[in-house]
């Protein structure tokens, strides 16, 4: 699916982030994210690029099996809103590619803030006109660092790269996810962020 | 150092957490934390128990080398408050042991809430009468999942256990840290947590 065909995928078309480049550099240092991780993510993007749908299958199955997680996609009766889940999916897939292949520059930072707001009452549901709860609970945003990272290892290992390189790609992926969750936490607690 | 000698270490002497056991179980599921992780943490506690001071040396060196992190221990002039850093250290060491060896029950949940509040304006600095900023920024609380986890692997590997067991202990440690950071995020955004 081409990027332009993804509903609600507005990379490059959102306003600037309140988070500055210096803030980002300080955060990258706290996460131990360095140039070697950027390089490893580029390689991870090559390995994962063809496996995005299979990764999403694993993640959607995990969310679907956990009522406390699927609740973020539920309507007023508590039933999962299928059209909402379906519309988010290609953006989630594109996020895998963006995490690996985009430079972490101002445009990226701006889009992290857009993603952040889409988890909170400011913008949740609006992109997809979804009748659902008004935020993703902060605790699950943080908790998902674990499955979103551990499940990727098998896919990285399918690239026939040496084990040490799989480890490096996996570690870079982990840091990139933690970095993004830290950025996504901002609108939950702007004064204490 | 015995637990009772640790200034401000109030495990078992704080009020109940607003987070219930059901919330904890749901969060553990989201983090993929299961009985095998509990068992691995017990073994990790045996391996790490004698190395706590060396681990703290690594962590304190990392924080000290990062001005954006040491700021949480800085006074009004921006200088690190040494007495504050020194008083926190034995509690941080005890936290390593508690993470590995305590059952994650109501008492543990209550103390997680106490730790959480001590990162926010509700209680930061009070335990140590420290003249410092009134909160640890939420983004660094999340970011520190990375170094607090990656630096522990070498110490786990010094226990002469098989590599697969070191991996299991490390993964359990990682999940336990993510779980606790998720709990510690609560007072930053009580309505959206």
Descriptive overview:
The structure is a homodimer of 193-residue chains. Chain A is mostly helical. Chain A has a single domain, classed as Globins (Globin-like, Orthogonal Bundle), CATH 1.10.490.10. Chain A contains 10 helices and no strands. In chain A, helix 2 (35-48) crosses helix 10, helix 3 (52-64) packs across helix 5 and helix 6 crosses helix 10. Chain A is globular, with a radius of gyration of 16 Å. The first copy, chain A, starts with 20 loop residues before the first helix and ends in a 9-residue tail after the last helix. At the A-B interface, helix 1, helix 7, helix 8 and helix 10 of A face helix 1, helix 7, helix 8 and helix 10 of B.
Task: Calculate Rg of chain A over CA atoms.
Answer: 16 Å
Superfamily (CATH H level) name of chain A: Globins
Q: Output the helix-strand order of chain A.
A: HHHHHHHHHH
**What oligomeric assembly is this protein in?**
homodimer
What form of chain A results from the Cα inertia axes? Answer: globular
State the end-to-end CA separation of chain A.
35 Å
Please report which band the strand proportion of chain A falls in: under 5%, 5-15%, 15-25%, 25-35%, 35-45% or over 45%. under 5%
User: Mean pLDDT across all residues of chain A, rounded?
Assistant: 96
CATH class group of chain A = Mainly Alpha
Number of helices of chain A: 10
CATH architect. name of chain A: Orthogonal Bundle
The profile of the biggest β sheet of chain A is: none
Total domain units of chain A: 1
GO molecular function, one term (chains A, B): heme binding
Protein name (chains A, B): Protogloblin ApPgb
Organism (chains A, B): Georgenia thermotolerans
């Amino acid at each position: 699916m081409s990027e332009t065909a993804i509903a609600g995928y507005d990379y490059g078309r959102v306003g600037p982030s309140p988070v500055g480049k210096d803030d980002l550099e300080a955060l990258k240092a706290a996460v131990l994210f360095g140039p070697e991780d950027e390089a490893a993510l580029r390689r991870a993007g090559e390995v994962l690029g063809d496996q995005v749908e299979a990764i999403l299958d694993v993640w959607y199955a995990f969310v679907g099996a956990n009522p406390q997680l699927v609740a973020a996609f539920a309507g007023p009766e508590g039933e999962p809103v299928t059209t909402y889940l379906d519309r988010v999916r290609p953006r989630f897939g594109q996020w895998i590619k963006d995490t690996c292949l985009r430079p972490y520059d101002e445009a990226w930072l701006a889009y992290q803030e857009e993603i952040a707001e889409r988890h909170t009452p400011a913008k949740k549901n609006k992109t997809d006109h979804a009748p659902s709860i008004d935020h993703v609970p902060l605790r699950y945003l943080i908790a998902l660092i674990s499955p979103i990272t551990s499940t990727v290892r098998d896919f990285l290992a399918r690239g026939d790269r040496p084990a040490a390189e799989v480890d490096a790609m996996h570690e870079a992926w982990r840091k990139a996810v933690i970095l993004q969750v830290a950025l996504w936490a901002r609108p939950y607690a702007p004064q204490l962020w």
